[in-house]
């Protein structure tokens, strides 16, 4: 099968998200200039550079009360900071509960029953029990082709690692089992890992 996205795929559901998988989930927490806290998961998320460490996530939807985007991007535009919380399998239901469209005044931490605490280097909340959190200062927001498509880039200014996830000096993902996004309504969990040595190592 071959298709050009502009002409449609003819399948019951869009296969694009199922092709580019698995994708890490960036559980983005922000605080608005009015002090309102927000938490939402984004599966268009990844690390993009080592030095300085940088990450990105993309928002591809719109809320009626935010004009051209969602609460996360709106808050980041106003404050210039955000936090990326890593999602573990044990918190899959809370992550999913925070994904619904809610009013700007609604605190997803409270709605989903998620304990929060403040970040250290930025004025922003974070998921208290997350295996890891990346505190980020905005570097740029890029408008992408299409309606309400924005890529948000940030420099990581602080990193929280949960103590039980550090084993023999390494951050061990098998201690918390990261959740990953697949296509459609499907997810995956990382339980097994293996190593490969590069030819020039």
TrEMBL record:
Q: Which organism is it from?
A: Yoonia rhodophyticola
GO MF, one annotated term: oxidoreductase activity
UniProt name for this protein: Flavin reductase family protein
* SMART domains linked: Flavin_Reduct
Tell me the superkingdom of the source: Bacteria
Keyword Transferase set for record = no
> EC annotation?
1.5.1.-
* Top enzyme class: oxidoreductase
